[in-house]
Input
Amino acid sequence: MTVWDTLVGQGPTITALQQAAAGQGMTHAWLFTGPPGSGRSNAAIAFAAALQCPDRGAGPGCPDTCHACHTVLHGSHADVSVIRTQKLSIGVDEVRDLVRRAALSPMGDRWQILIVEDADRLTDQACNALLKAIEEPNGRTLWMLCAPTVEDVLPTIRSRCRLVTLSTPRVAEVAGFLVTKGVAEPLASYAARASQGHIGRAKALAFDEAVRTRRQEVVSIPARLSNLGRCMDAAARLATTAKEEADAITADLDAREKTDLDAAYGVVERGRRPREYGPALTALDKAQKTRAKRRHLDMVDRGLTDLVSVYRDAIALATGAPGGLVNEDIRDQVEQIVATASPELNLRRIGWIFAAREQMLEFNVPVALALESMMVALKTPQR
Output
């Protein structure tokens, strides 16, 4: 197995990156784009490993057992930094720290590589600070930015980057990948369809029954929206389901961070809190709340994507479009939606879901309010 095997259904991208690692078309700044779950950051990390590996050429090369590949893949290489944020945005102070790091020479004899996940979350000031570093690069420093689309990145930045575009993997490719991980074929097929090409989501659906249960709760909502009371209940349940999934992800991490903070300030051993502990605890609490908010919004966003898939299936079924349904397991409910609404109405419903998403993510409308308004709009019309 090589590092490229983590990139499902990205054959042309792998070939291009292998050629660049061998010296064909190399540049100092890269922009990896692609839909959620396509593997943007995985592609950047695989490329970084190829560049740091002394044995990898344009072909398969090193089987990822050398020291350089191993440390890059496990996040411990001294010259490869992966910048992730748990916040709603990446601020100018964080970027200035990266710019200072980029000015330093690498510790090894190859490259210093800075991988910025969620580059679309850079604030305007952060973008301006990053632009300066990309315009005047250090000779041995590489920038790799990851974003959903090129439009999510400042034009002056993207014009200085070589674009790497990833595509959504096909259902068969995702299912095949899951089978290689030991997942039974029927479950792999379900997870591949339900994830709509999102590799991380597919793995979660395949390996975690609780995730599958929560998704089933969400996709069953459209068939139940028969009156105002059920709309209000559905909004509350979607918000609750998203919060439960977000809490399940962050609870252990929050507890570990609190334990590490107590140990760092000797609270447990000394039995008392030093003066510096209070501000540090306040800062940690603020950071955890910000992370929890973002994670909650991410889970709501995922739920909205699942809702869209139901109405998409209804349109496909009503118009006789080729291809299978995303939600084949609830075909009877999809047929019920087809019987009560035209394809035009279901298309408008998808628009209303995207409008609710924009209200929450872009305009900070409270989740409960946005979901209630959306569910009322989605209500099954009375005949």
